[in-house]
Amino acid sequence: MNSKKKASTKMILMLTEFSNRDKNATDAALKLAVKLGLNLMLLHVYPVTGNEQSKNQMENAKYLSEIDRYFESEKKRLMQLLQINQGDVSQPMIKSRSVEGSLSDNVCGILEKEDIVMIVMGGRPARDNDYLFCTEIDEILYKTSRPVLIIPEKMGLEI
């Protein structure tokens, strides 16, 4: 009898904008992934750039390079966190994806292709200019049947 546990393809989708709020939520998503035996996908969505001038293309390439560096740094940080806190517990696979366009459209596209069981994101106190942010959250909640967990900026998740 083979006692080796089959790796799960199920994932938690973590929405990130690279803020401290998201770091806290990412830590919570990682704890959940470990506890539930799931993998973790970090998703960053950036706005569509309509101008194709060479200067903008260079700025986009620089921005995408910065995103790649952030993801590599974040994956390393999460793996270190796993080693410190979890020891020999099975470790989730951590993926990252950066895409252009609408947050809700990209989330829905990923939900069609990947086995996502939950969406996690960082929360923050309301601000005057939160209309777009709230609209995107509403669209995600409306368009998906997956649970959405919003982790407050100043609170962790104890499980």
CATH class membership: Alpha Beta
Q: Which band does the percent of strand residues land in?
A: 15-25%
Compute the gyration radius: what is it? 17 Å
Number of domains: 1
Mean pLDDT: 79
- With strands numbered from the N-terminus, the spatial order across the biggest sheet is 3-2-1-4-5
End-to-end Cα distance, whole Å, is: 32 Å
Instruction: Give the low-pLDDT segments.
Output: none
Fold-level CATH name:
Rossmann fold
User: What is the CATH homology-level superfamily?
Assistant: HUPs
- Total E-strand runs: 5
Category by helix and strand content: alpha/beta
Work out the helicity level. 40-55%
Helix/strand order: EHEHEHEHE
Number of helices: 4
Largest sheet: 5 strands, parallel
Global shape: globular
CATH architectural arrangement? 3-Layer(aba) Sandwich
Notes on the structure:
- The chain has 159 residues and is α/β, with parallel strands linked by helices.
- The protein has a single domain, classed as 3-Layer(aba) Sandwich (Rossmann fold).
- Helices cover 47% and strands 21% of the residues.
- The protein is built from four helices and five strands, in the order βαβαβαβαβ.
- It has helices spanning 20-36, 54-86, 103-113, 131-143, and strands spanning 11-15, 39-46, 94-100, 116-123, 148-152.
- It has a five-stranded parallel β-sheet, sandwiched between helices.
- Helix 3 (103-113) packs parallel to helix 4.
- The chain starts with 10 loop residues before the first strand and ends in a 7-residue tail after the last strand.
